[in-house]
Amino acid sequence: MNSSSNEGCEGHKTLEELVSRISTRLRELGFRVKRHEVVECGSIRHELDILAELNPLPDMSLKVGFKIINRDLVVDDVEKYIAWLDELPLDKLVLVTTGKVDVNAYELAKKFGIDIVRLVSIETMRPARAAFEEMYVDPRIDINQAIQSLRKETKSLFSKKTLESCTLVYLPLITIRGEVVEKHLEEEKVTLRHFALTFDGIEAYLVLLKGETMILDEDLGSFLEIPEDSITILNKLSEFGALDVNELAGMIGFPKDRLKTYINILASKSLVDLYGDLVELRYSIFTHSTDVKEFIKGRGLELKCGLPPDREDVITIPLKADINRLIEIIEAVNGRIDSISITYYPLYVGIVYKEKETEETCVVDGITGSILHSFSIPLSSIEIIDLIRSRAKSRRHNTAY
Fold it and tell me: From edge to edge, which strands make up the β-sheet containing 92-97?
């Protein structure tokens, strides 16, 4: 019995991975993608694994539905979905199979205009990164001003500290813009909210504005900590708004104890609330919209296309966070993504030695000159500290306070 349960979970995981990879490819082609979308036409409702929409020309839209058959495709499958073409407002229906295709099934699908895509295994689809625009902004303050800010910061602390080195670091910030359909059960209403969510490009902490300063939301932590199975839970909750734990466990086939572990992870990210055994979807992260592009433009600075210039005394941190995982989370809560941009934001990062030879990073905003304590979190790995130290050797500032 345990063996069969495990096989079912593996099959489900494979299906979710396949949906994720197909969705990524479609986004690269400019499609707006919704996963596990329930489409209604009158009293008829069917769930598509993927609904992809494209507007190639003004006043022209293209809707393509995808159903994934995680086995051999036979005639009965095609006959089942022929009716969907008449029942749903789709321009094209695509059946994706991971197994073999029966010849009669192929001929029948071709006759009714249903496309068949065959994937021998999920491994034939290599993961791809979502398409986005990249830009950067020059710092407003220079390194000497940053060092002065760091000196003031270390002087204000009781323990003796030494500023060993400082250099300009460009940190990638991911901004995802779109809209989300919020279902408020208590008020019995549905709200459409436009949003712009920004995450750091290393650990995927949510970036917030506090007055004139950016901070990372340390309470929510990294959104990369959300596992694939938790996204499956969000997909199901987005359909109903709220569900009993036992009912939810039956729908997705997870044991209750395991399900509660995933629910607790989602609750820690403010994506769900748990009232006894009732799980309800939350939308609170969308109330903290932060668009880095607007933040920069609001200060009269120019955004430049591409990557920052390659210089020996400047470090550009490569994008490490999985954008596709962030997209999946947003889409799982009824979000629709319109655009994604990566902004390489200028920070001055100092390495500070404390007593007993311990070290830490201290970060200065290259635009406002503010000390950004929370940004030390993604910039404190040994790899990054070693990189900063190697680039800053030629102008080390050894000053004890």
Answer: 32-41, 44-57, 60-69, 92-97, 115-118
